[in-house]
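User:
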Amino acid sequence: MNLEEREPSQSTPDPNPARLTLRVDPDECPCRLDVYLTQNLDDLSRSRVQEVIRGGHAFVDGASAKPGQRLSGGEGIEITLPPPRELAPRPEAIALDVLYEDDDLLVINKPAGMVVHPGAGVDSGTLVNALLHYCGRLSALGGVARPGVVHRLDRLTSGCLCVAKNDFAHQRLAAQLVDRSMSRVYLAWALGEMADRAGRIDAPIGRSRRDPTLMTVVHRAGRPAATQWEVLARAPGLTRLHCRLETGRTHQIRVHLSYVNHPVVGDRDYGPPPREAKMRIPAGHPAIIQAVSRCSRQMLHARRIQFRHPRSGEAMEFEAPLPEDFQAFDAALEPFLLR
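Assistant: Predicted structure:
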């Protein structure tokens, strides 16, 4: 689980940090045990949850459980999470765009399409594989598969990402995520013309019951999540935004913008199908429709990151230049901007 998201919803911590207790919310039932745990334990896949249950590490009302056991609400669940059997990633000679580096940390401009760390069937070509070849020494706090990873970006999101070279730096950078003193600003193109100049989306996020690999707004059992946004420009059927994270939930900006009916352009998970996306562009703008149709990924870029240096306390700020596909989208929309 992420450092910001250690405690699952409806749970209480145990002296053993690998043991969790949960009280099943009736509003989330009926459902299977493995589905419920996948929805309420961040960063655990359904296959991993099933492995833990089959290994005899989950109990419902004190009795051993099976993955398909039906829950009706009110049950008490105890689950112990044994250390996952992780394989150490291999160093790979993959080019990196390094924005900054010293003895404690790196700031990387991650390209869209690169996965941050191994997992879910991906064991090569990740940022971690590249970092291990580039510098060899990374913080161990992220675990075997996630050395140095302080925070993450989605595979199809580009931009600034901070990496810790040692445990000292990792602890202090992670603390800035928790106390929200680390600032992360994103650029996004959203479907629809947002009426206000700025706003704030405050809506808790949890795992989707329909697809545990995705997230959704969950009012009763989700984790607190807030995103500030500001309009930079509008075009017919589109809005260009600055988005600032107050929290760092999985897929947060994508989920929040979809929740207010302004999904990120090109988002295949949280936005409409391509045909429906094009229909949201007013008639008479074929160039805009064509630009939207060409998007092969979500138009979301982590533009800026600000934090205090973990050792010196110095204020630091870095910006990642826009990738070519984002620049091309901006250029296609430039003649139509309504500032």
